[in-house]
Amino acid sequence: MSTIKLHDKYFNPYLSKDKVISVVDKLVQQVLEDCKDEIPLFIGILNGSFMFAADFIRKYPRACEVSFVKMASYEGTNSTGKVTQLLGVNEDLTGRTVVILEDIIDTGNTLQKIYEIFKNKNVKTLKIATLFFKPDVFKKALPIDYIGLSIPDEFIVGYGLDYNNLGRNIDSIYKLTTPKMTNIVLFGPPGAGKGTQADVLKEHFNLKHISTGEVFRYNIKNKTELGLLAKKYMDQGDLVPDEVTIKMLKEEVDRNASAKGFIFDGFPRTITQAEALDEFLSEKGETVNGMVALEVPEDILVNRLLERGKVSGRSDDQDEEKIRNRFNEYNTKTAVLKDYYADQNKYFGANGVGSIEEIAKRLSKVIEKL
Ligand code: AMP
Q1: Is 240's C-beta closer than 6 angstroms to any atom of ligand 1?
Q2: Out of 22-26, 69-73, 142-146, 203-207, which region has the weakest mean confidence (pLDDT)?
Q3: Can you spell out the DSSP letters for 22-86?
Q4: Beta bridge partners of 98
Q5: Measuring CA to CA, which residue among 28, 22, 363 is closest to residue 172?
Q6: How far apart are CA 110 and CA 140, in angstroms?
């Protein structure tokens, strides 16, 4: 079992098929014990309980009757609080022992509706059996007779439970991944001060700084295969091909698996890289929290780079033509990323002109809110 994607969200394995079946077995035994002298009517609550009800009833060794009602309360991953009955009870329930089979009880809104529906049906006994129960979010003072498994407040799918209608056919249980990292894309044209600011911010927020440019330069210095490959692009101010850069970035992230989060500096630089980063982080249950952009006018940048070139020793900083080409690469391939993140409400611009401290303060303010 590994991570699965349903619609836009990722889910990790939570309870195996065997574990779920053992919980169903336990519930069957408990109900059997209490229904020694009767023929219970099991009523499954659709849609979520269809798999649980099928397994439960299949395992119930004595005479029983089966019916279903259909209710809905979820939209996406949140209970709406509004429960609607879409399919009702047709049977005469007078004098019957009715056992409700629910897949999960969380807020208790559906349970309340169940009690309302069965109140005036003259049943002898109404029992509630639920496969899963979330005690932390249950808000009602209503009895639940049989609880299969109490679980923390996680959004789960599988074994009949869905996320926007997907996932019901999975025979085990998966839970929604919850991000633990803070991942910042530090953005801006060449010379905007990303590296300088990343040095300040990584200390302040205890994040791992990954500069793809730095990693390439390290590889060039050490004459690695990657370095040799990257050099011919970097020397011209061209972007290194996506395939190479993405692979390298992933390796850097994996090498720092225990990091609290990352400051990505100089990555992504193309839409393909941004999509690869999203996909890669999602697989880990993580996400890009925001793109924080240093906004600096281009004429200031060229001068900054030429000044830096006098001390940095970087050949791509010393030649105005190469600098212009880097801006060209930025404007044609990278600048579009502003829209990519803005479309997800993840773009945050900050004025990149001023002292290092002033700019760091502006950026910190943005990052604190992410
Ligand atoms: P930087 O240190 O971020 O200014 O990057 C210096 C050079 O490294 C760039 O001009 C590119 O040639 C290369 N480079 C750095 N990051 C990337 C990236 N994400 N994609 C492609 N090339 C990159």
Answers
A1: yes
A2: 69-73
A3: HHHHHHHHHHHHHTTTS--EEEEEETTTHHHHHHHHHH--S--EEEEEEEEEEETTEEEEEEEEE
A4: 41, 126
A5: 22
A6: 11
Digit-coded pLDDT (tens) for 12-36: 999 999 999 999 999 999 999 999 9
Look up residue 321 and give its two tokens: 């033509």
* Cβ of 267 below 6 Å from ligand 1: yes
Q: How far apart are CA 209 and CA 202, in angstroms?
A: 6
Q: What is the pTM of this model?
A: 0.73
Strand partners, 231: none
Backbone angles phi, psi at 254, to 5 degrees: -65, -35
Check pocket membership of 131 for ligand 1, CB cut-off 6 A: no
The alpha carbon of 213 and the centre of ligand 1 are apart by a number of angstroms equal to 5
pLDDT tier at 1 (50, 70, 90 boundaries)? low
Active site residue 62: no
Residue ranges and CATH numbers for the domains of the chain are 4-177 (3.40.50.2020), 182-369 (3.40.50.300)
Shortest-distance atom of ligand 1 to CA 217: 8
pLDDT at residue 182, as a whole number: 96
Q: Is 233 in the pocket of ligand 1 (CB under 6 A)?
A: yes
* Integer CA distances (angstroms), 87 to 107, 117, 327, in order: 21, 11, 62
Which of 187, 199, 228, 234 is the pocket-test mutation for ligand 1 (most atoms within 8 Å of CB)? 234
Question: How many Å apart are CA 296 and CA 346, to the nearest integer?
Answer: 19
CA distance 162 to 148: 19
Query: Which residue's CA lies nearest to atom 6 of ligand 1?
Result: 213
| The one catalytic residue among 9, 96, 113, 194 | 194
Atom 14 (ligand 1): residue with closest C-alpha?
213
Question: Which of these is catalytic: 26, 308, 338, 346?
Answer: 308
Atom of ligand 1 nearest to the CA of 234: 12
Q: Are 195 and 214 in contact (CB under 8 A)?
A: yes
